[in-house]
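FORM 7B: Structural annotation worksheet

SECTION A. Query
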Amino acid sequence: MTGYHQWMKEAHSLERLVDMLRRGNVVVLSGAGLSTESGIPDYRTPDGKRRVTPMMYGDFVASATNRQRYWARSFVGWPRFVAAAPNDGHRAVTAMQQRGLLRSIITQNVDGLHQRSGARDVVELHGGLERVVCLQCGGLSARIDLDRRLREANPDFAVAEYELRPDGDVVLPEESVREFRLAHCLVCGSDLLKPDVVFFGESVPKSVVARCYAAVDQSDGLVVLGSSLQVMSGYRFVLRAAEHGLPVAIVTRGVTRGDAQATIRIDAPLGETLAGIMTTLEHELHAAR
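SECTION B. Predicted structure
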């Protein structure tokens, strides 16, 4: 396909996506690719291969040594992760919600950037890193409070610049990890504190899945933003929409597992593309007044 014909195809796909959003009652499913422009890396390369191997749930609960490794790495990465700000893509999605175009926002991300951009009623499919849960007693607490306690327990812990990973952690030398002291649950005293997110090897709560299915079933279409859909937790909603004959639009860089089900497929930068779509919709709204 020549460059011109590719451009025409992309332009036509963009027009169809604008029309789909214009009609409203759309569900957005966002993935890590939406947050890369905020400085948070995604999990996979453009061809769908995993960049990093995160800690599995079974490994995390198996030993205090593994928890020590996780929290040491997360402790170093957390300040940069929490400092990330919403980008044009997040702001465009929020603007669409505020104008009543979206039925629901479902995110696979754990960074809270949709909410920080002003979005409301966001379904966090995989939870959120700003909360911590005790696996022993079920108590919930704020990550900011745990971070303070970890700093008090590790006042001399050497913090250097390391490459940030998608879950907000970094890779540390093992000798550094061995020096790190864990904090314990303030309710029951257990060291089984875990970020309130779904680890690899865990299942998304059935109630959350049911809520997302219901949103898709009652919508007029699904728009996937920045996800390769390699994991079933998000891909199942594409399959659900396709099963119901609903249009599925996918906007992301590189190939996705859902390309066969997509009725609209756009390979383009998220922030620029979504901001442009919102500008078009805003102009139409003002012209109609």
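SECTION C. Observations
The domain at 52-83+128-197 is CATH 3.30.1600.10 (SIR2/SIRT2 'Small Domain'). The longest helix spans residues 3-23.

SECTION D. Sign-off
Analyst initials: ____
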